[in-house]
TrEMBL record:
Cellular compartment(s): Mitochondrion matrix
GO-annotated cellular components: mitochondrial matrix
Organism, as annotated: Myotis lucifugus
GO-annotated molecular function: identical protein binding; manganese ion binding; superoxide dismutase activity
Name of the protein: Superoxide dismutase
GN (gene name): SOD2
C-alpha cells in the first residue's frame, strides 16, 4: 500500500477534492519505529517534534483547507478555489513528502542498495559513490527550505536527482516518481546539527532504508 501510494503521490489529493460531501480526511501516519530508534544519527527529540508537530500541522492544515475548498466548490466560488491552491500545494506536499520520508529511514538502514536498484544507480550515475555525492550536493545546495530527491523518470526509464523548494511535491513539480527524499528544512536537523546542514547530510546516509527505496523503484518500473 505504501509503495502504491508513492507511485501516485501527486494524485493523492485529487479524489478528495473532487468528491463533494464524501471526502475522507487525511491522517498522520504512524512511524514504523520509535522516535529514538534513529539515534545517534537523528535524535528522538527531533523525530518527535518533526512527526508529531510539523507533519501533524501539515495534515491538519490540509484538512482545513480542503473543507474550505469543498465549500467554494459547492458555491461555485472560483476565486476562492484559486486562492486556496497555494495552501493545498504546500500542506498537501508536506503531507506527501513526509509520508515518504519516514519510510525512507530505518534504524537498520545505511550501506548500499542491492540488486536492480544498485545496477540502475551504476547505470545512471556511474557508481554508488558518485550518486551519493550528487544527491548530497543537490540537497546541501537547496536555498532556504526544501528537499533533495532521487526520482524515477517513467518516460525515459532512468533515475534522476532533483531538488524541490519548500514542500513542493516531486511528482507534481517535475513529473518524477519519488523514491528517496532528504528533508533539508532546518526543523529536520537544527536541534542536533544547528545550521551545519552538511553534517546532517553526512549522518542521514547511515539510516537510509534501501529496502524501502528498492520496493518503490520496483513498483514504479512496472
Amino acid at each position: 500500500h505504501v509503495v502504491r501510494a508513492a507511485c501516485s503521490a501527486s494524485r493523492e489529493l485529487v479524489p478528495a477534492l473532487g468528491t463533494l460531501g464524501s471526502r475522507r480526511k487525511h491522517t498522520l501516519p504512524d512511524l514504523p519505529y520509535d522516535y529514538g530508534a534513529l539515534e545517534p544519527h537523528l535524535s528522538g527529540q527531533i523525530m518527535q517534534l518533526h512527526h508529531s508537530k510539523h507533519h501533524a500541522a501539515y495534515v491538519n492544515n490540509l484538512n482545513a483547507t480542503e473543507e474550505k475548498y469543498q465549500e467554494a466548490l459547492a458555491k461555485g466560488d472560483v476565486t476562492t478555489q484559486v486562492a486556496l491552491q497555494p495552501a493545498l500545494k504546500f500542506n498537501g506536499g508536506g503531507h506527501i513528502n513526509h509520508s515518504i520520508f519516514w519510510t525512507n529511514l530505518s534504524p537498520n538502514g545505511g550501506g548500499e542498495p542491492k540488486g536492480e536498484l544498485l545496477e540502475a544507480i551504476k547505470r545512471d550515475f556511474g557508481s554508488f559513490a558518485t550518486f551519493k555525492e550528487k544527491l548530497t550536493t543537490v540537497s546541501a545546495g537547496v536555498q532556504g527550505s526544501g528537499w533533495g530527491w532521487l526520482g524515477f523518470n517513467k518516460e525515459q526509464g532512468r533515475l534522476q536527482i532533483a531538488a524541490c523548494s519548500n514542500q513542493d511535491p516531486l511528482q507534481g513539480t517535475t513529473g518524477l516518481i519519488p523514491l528517496l527524499g532528504i528533508d533539508v528544512w532546518e526543523h529536520a536537523y537544527y536541534l542536533q546539527y544547528k545550521n551545519v546542514r552538511p553534517d546532517y547530510l553526512k549522518a542521514i546516509w547511515n539510516i537510509i532504508n534501501w529496502q524501502n527505496v528498492t520496493e518503490r523503484y520496483m513498483a514504479c518500473k512496472k
